[in-house]
Amino acid sequence: MQVNDFMDSLIEESTSLEPAPVPAVFSPPMSDKERSKLRYCSLLCYQVKGCIWRLVTADANALLLPTLVLKRRQLITVFFCRHFRPPHGEGKLFVSRRSLLDELFEVNHIRTIYHMFIALLILFILSTLVVDFIDEGRLVLEFDLLVYAFGQFPLVVCTWICMFLSVLFIPYTLFYLWAQSHSGSHSHLRLYSLLFGTLFLLYQALGLGFLPTYTVVTNSFPPASCFIIILEQVRLMMKAHSFVRENVPRVLAWCKEKNVVPQVSQYLYFLFAPTLIYRDKYPRNPVIRWGYVVSKLLQVLGCLFYAYYVFVRLCIPQFRSISLQLFDLRAMVLCVFNSILPGVLVLFLGFFAFLHCWLNAFAEMLRFADRMFYKDWWNSTSFANYYRTWNVVVHDWLYYYVYRDFLRMSQKRCRPAAMLFVFTVSAVVHEYILAICFGFFYPVLFCLFMCFGMMFNFILHDKRKGPIWNIIMWTSLFLGQGVIICLYSQEWYAQRYCPLKEPSFFELLKPRSWSCERPDDRL
């Protein structure tokens, strides 16, 4: 009787409490603080189970009740810890937390660096206006590059709407029908699973894979418009995979006891949420700070104009001329080093605009409370840590659905092979995006990923500590950005200066910048 009274009071008190923040137990790597909290939670669960067992086997000895009552609050914490645990005890735990830059910008010393970048943008604008005034005799405020890059925008919007509606209804409908077939007494369950699994893979390959790419290529979308469609294509494919991957084990485990198919509203929220890991529920903030949303969207717009001036002032003048020359080692070396500054600026702008501003804006509008979209990658002393902390959103998807699933299928025997497979998948997807958006195949990024990226991942591993390794990491990163900007920019102009009338398959794969020397009138 005393046990029942105690459990009733425990449940009543738990309903009046908000869930305590829980560390991301399975989000690699954990900090020392997170590990200590996990050990404490595990020890507490063990102690509570022991107390309850002794209480039951001792005929509810009243002497043990004070011990349980003193740990009532701790029991409630454990209750909520289990409530927010991912399915089957695995996966990422979402916790209410702010983005790292939002916390750092509260420090005046760090915010000054942000002000320095704004001052540099002002100087870019002034230099462009002054040069145009000297050359043209008037102020030129035309943004031809932006207008060209975002061309055919109405068609982009229509294509995106079709993609989104298809990924909203088709994967959910297929999963719902498959779950219904498993919830009843149907025979041939394996045949049903094969049928719906095949239909889902066909939709991923054709509906989301082929059709958007075909639309982009046949309509000759300009680069920025193309990036919008292709990046959304990859994002929606990863979202659909996560939804099915997270819910299939639940149906197999619980289908005979209750209906575990998520609601459409939960799936719709996930499609907009700034995460690639599906959960029925996420930690939510109580209110939407619309001023914060507006400021982040304005910062995205500012980064867009910042990138425009970087290309106009630092890239276009250089590559217009160098793309007309045959390959020369000295010119190539100078080109790479001259491209480091614009490459690094583009890297910072892309990180700040998307991973910080864009994702935080959507997270705020959706009251999504877990804002750990990145970690302190700038402090990395190894490329292994850099890959984990640069883009946490994508890394989580690769870790749980590629790396861990590969280990599970190989019975944890091939960790190096699993890591190589992750690198290959990431490199292929990155190169696919660039090839479609730029309109040519030039596997510079793929080679950097698979050759230097893999090599540095093992050489600059997590055991490397100290400032010197952070310097080496930054030096390699800067040099890599210079190589990417230099080679892709040269190939972009070479494709326009030296078009092929009837190209063969080999000529399509061969970089045009290796042999182009005939100028054309086009930009």
Verbal overview:
- The protein is mostly helical.
- Among the domains are: 2-85, no CATH class; 149-272, no CATH class.
- It has helices spanning 2-15, 32-57, 65-70, 72-83, 100-104, 108-136, 144-149, 153-183, 189-218, 223-254, 264-272, 290-322, 329-338, 340-365, 383-389, 392-409, 415-438, 444-459, 467-497, 505-509.
- Helix 6 crosses helix 12 (290-322) and helix 8 runs parallel beside helix 10.
- The longest helix has 33 residues, at 290-322.
- Pfam families: MBOAT.
- It is a multi-pass membrane protein.
- Keywords: Acyltransferase, Disulfide bond, Endoplasmic reticulum, Membrane, Phosphoprotein, Transferase, Transmembrane, Transmembrane helix.
- The chain crosses the membrane at residues 113-134, 154-179, 191-214, 290-311, 332-363, 383-402, 440-459, 471-490.
Question: Main traits of this protein?
Answer:
single chain; 20 helices; disordered N terminus; globular; mainly alpha; 523 residues
Please tell me how large the radius of gyration is.
27 Å
Largest sheet: none
Mean pLDDT: 79
Give the end-to-end Cα distance, rounded to a whole number of Å. Answer: 85 Å
Order of helices and strands: HHHHHHHHHHHHHHHHHHHH
* Number of discrete helical segments: 20
> How does the overall form come out from the CA principal axes?
globular
Q: Helix amount, in percent? A: over 70%
Q: What's the total count of β strands?
A: 0
Strand content: under 5%
Structural class: mainly alpha
Low-confidence stretches: 1-29, 35-85
